[in-house]
Write a structure and sequence with these properties.
It comes from Henosepilachna vigintioctopunctata. The chain has 501 residues and is of the alpha+beta class. The protein starts with a strand and ends with a strand. The protein is built from 11 helices and 20 strands. Helix content is 21%, strand content 21%. β8 and β9 form a beta hairpin. α2 runs antiparallel to α3 (60-70) and α4 crosses α5 (125-134). It is globular and about 70 Å long.
């Protein structure tokens, strides 16, 4: 039986590492057989909640808690080849990028300006008119007039000034690698693959740039805020084989999480069906109209306030563990989505949404939350820059989570981008380079597409203003963003073990 799990750390000193290993083993009561496990680091957040349910920490507790602060920094050997790394964060300098899409059937015969003004409302029609006239919005890589009527198979290309969202600078570590598969330990906050506002700050890109592991096949995925084991196939044959095993439920998956309240001592089985109520923002609920699914839960410990539990999902529905825990009344303590009063006074316990319809719930979620902090789909599609103007304003400009200080300066928004680079705790360097003109860098080819713009640069430990680009027409260049806080980048849910039956 193949078994891969995570339980120890490489970042702490040898003495503390041994102590933590013994404690975590005791807490999780997992019997480890020699040679049957491949071990990788658990994120420091797991230690933070693991230590709270154990009485054996003693005087070591405070030291380990302080040590966690240093774990958010990486060594020089662990740096990404592209992003700027500041303490705790992996950032990407803004760059020009080409989004492409083929003409949809319903667009044929319509004027290009009318289509963009109606379909992609992130910007007003005047902005798309400017892009068409400037030649940054093209058809078949050729400049056209604003009244050009779209034809079948026309390729639309739009060059944009792209700002990626910072993620944790904790390294993606390789647990196991052979000629068929790669298994990594994914830190929380890093998406698996390019989506929405993430591209270079994704596991796939980091593996390609840091380990030269390219053309990996995604076998399964983890939510952006979920940490833990992630597997990729190195060959089509092996990828299909492992996908078949997962699809046919031949793989036993185990997760560890921290939930609110005292979880029951006995084995709990939840078989409530789950329905996706919005694919766009990635929100689910328990519903008789949903798909069948089952999750088993075991309590591992309780600290008087919260419980650490072991989760065994029998199926793999979207947000299955998180939704089932919400339904049972034991949401993950720092789940920014399913542990929120937007689901009603009971926070969705027992399926009680406070009398809200699905549409009302979705609208409330859009108004209350900063989408980048909780979207289950890790952002919208690759054309998410074309969100509606209304959604863009609500998600970015001055909207903060209820947990944030409501007296926060209105010029500071909760979305996380790279417009202000904090080099250390004592100073920051704003990137107000308004003197730069909006021009397309000559090295950027109009024929470069999503697949070819992969770039490669040496990492920076300090902010380099010479690498900053500014576009006078870029909306995000005009907005001052704050860096995400450590608590914005984690959720206490960790993919612990995969066993092939």
């Amino acid at each position: 039986m193949l078994e891969i799990s995570t339980y120890n750390t490489k970042q702490l000193s040898t003495t503390v590492k041994l102590l933590i290993t013994l404690i975590v083993d005791a807490i999780l009561t997992l019997k480890l057989k020699k040679g049957s496990h491949i071990h990788t680091p658990v994120l420091p957040e797991q230690y933070t909640f693991a230590r709270k349910i154990s009485n054996v920490w003693g005087k070591t507790r405070d030291f380990v808690q302080r040590s966690n602060l240093t774990l958010f920094c990486t060594s020089n050997k662990q740096l990404s080849k592209l992003p700027l790394l500041v303490p705790g964060l992996r950032k990407v300098y803004p760059y020009y990028f080409t989004f492409t899409t083929f003409t949809k059937g319903r667009w044929v015969g319509e004027k290009i300006l009318d289509v963009f003004a109606r379909e992609f409302r992130a910007h007003p029609a005047e902005e798309y008119e400017r892009c068409i006239q400037a030649g940054t919005l093209t058809v078949n890589y050729k400049k056209v007039a604003t009244d050009y009527r779209l034809k079948h198979n026309d390729l639309l290309a739009n060059i944009v000034h792209r700002h990626e969202v910072p993620v944790t600078s904790q390294p993606v570590t390789i647990v196991h690698m052979d000629e068929d598969i790669v298994v990594v330990n994914k830190p929380a906050s890093i998406p698996v693959h390019p989506c929405g506002r993430y591209r270079h700050n994704t596991v796939v890109f980091i593996l390609a740039k840091e380990f030269n592991l390219k053309n990996l096949r995604t076998i399964h995925r983890l939510d952006r805020l979920t940490s833990g084991l992630l597997m990729f196939g190195r060959s089509p044959k092996k990828a299909r084989e492992m996908e078949h095993q997962i699809r046919n439920r031949l793989v036993l998956k185990e997760y560890v999480c921290k939930v609110e309240g005292e979880f029951p001592d006995e084995l709990i089985e939840c078989s409530e069906p789950i329905e996706v109520i919005s694919y766009k923002i990635g929100v689910c609920k328990v519903s008789p109209n949903g798909k069948t699914c089952t999750t088993f839960f075991n309590k591992l410990g309780y600290d008087g306030k919260n419980s650490v539990i072991l989760c065994r999902p029998k199926t793999g529905r979207m947000h299955q563990i998180r939704v089932h825990l919400q339904y049972l009344g034991f949401p993950i303590v720092n789940d920014p989505l399913y542990n929120h009063s937007v689901f009603g006074p009971l926070k969705g316990k027992g399926g009680d949404l406070g009398g809200k319809t699905d549409e009302e719930l979705i609208q409330d979620l859009i108004h209350i939350h900063n989408a980048e902090n909780w979207l289950g789909m890790d952002g919208d599609s690759d054309l998410s820059m074309f969100n509606t103007r209304k959604d863009l304003d609500e998600n970015l400009v001055g909207h903060v989570s209820p947990k944030e200080n409501t007296s926060k300066n209105e010029s500071e928004v909760t979305s996380t981008s790279a417009c202000e680079i904090s080099c250390d705790t004592s100073k920051s360097i704003p990137c107000e380079l308004s003197t730069n003109k909006s021009v397309i860098v000559p090295s950027i080819s109009h024929r470069q597409t999503v697949a070819t713009q992969t770039g490669h640069e040496s990492p920076d430990m300090m902010f380099n203003p010479e690498k900053m680009t500014n576009d006078e027409h870029c909306y995000e260049c005009k907005v001052r963003y704050r860096d995400p806080k450590p608590q914005d980048l984690i959720m206490y849910l960790h993919a612990w073990t995969y066993k092939v039956k």
